[in-house]
From TrEMBL:
Subcellular location: Cell membrane
Family named by the database record: Belongs to the CDS family.
Name of this chain's protein: Phosphatidate cytidylyltransferase
GO terms for biological process, alphabetical: CDP-diacylglycerol biosynthetic process
Membrane topology term: Multi-pass membrane protein
Gene: cdsA
GO cellular component: plasma membrane
Protein's UniProt keywords contain Nucleotidyltransferase: yes
Amino acid sequence: MTAPSQQWSDLKPRVLSAAVMLAVGAVEIWLGGWWFLILITLLTAVMIWELAQLSQRLAPRQALTIAGLAALCLIADEGWPSLSAWIVFPLVPLAFMATPRKQQSAVAAISVAILIAGHGLFVLRDEQGTIAFLWLLGVVIVSDVMGYFAGRTLGGPKFWPAISPKKTWSGTIAGWIGAAVLGACFVAAGHGSFWLIPLSPLVAFAGQMGDIGESWLKRKLQAKDSSNLIPGHGGVLDRFDALVGAMVLVMVLTRFFPLPIGG
């Protein structure tokens, strides 16, 4: 296999896996309600399971127990609004801290980010509408795709070689540009104000930091992927780490001002 073909060897399985995930996601987003909550809960639980698997020292069944706890917490928070996330969500990081594992504090903190993102994705679709959810998903996808192709085509200086040796500045900046263009398209279509344009690359950057954060953890835990559940992508956390980072930022920002998109 030649060097150029090796460079793109993971493209076909990545595209096929992404197509399946997009098809399933599109149906669930369209259905909304409990169907969408089930999907978000499943993704959240699997990411928590992967996190527990990566970091555990003993008792493999602990990972399934913590994942089940995360699923119950998310369903309880969304299904019964009287049970605040402030009450149920801390149970998951406490479970990580109470069991023997590597990088305990970091893993507990990442579990909080995953839960916040799961909660935020459901709230965004349920309260802000499908357009807002598609914008967020689009920003993450466009940033990832632009970064992948620009980084491998243009190359150049590495963004953070000590943590993520494959990421380049060319790919990172291309991701920002793609996100800004996507934001401008939503504005041109009448689905947002001007502020959506600068907000989009900021959210893309948060997604890139989510990816970097997971890369840092995998290096610390000496793991290549969070699991091997998704061909060409590794694990669910490998695929959705950027979405977690982006959603957490959106959740923080919406505490201070309304999201400049909706409908």
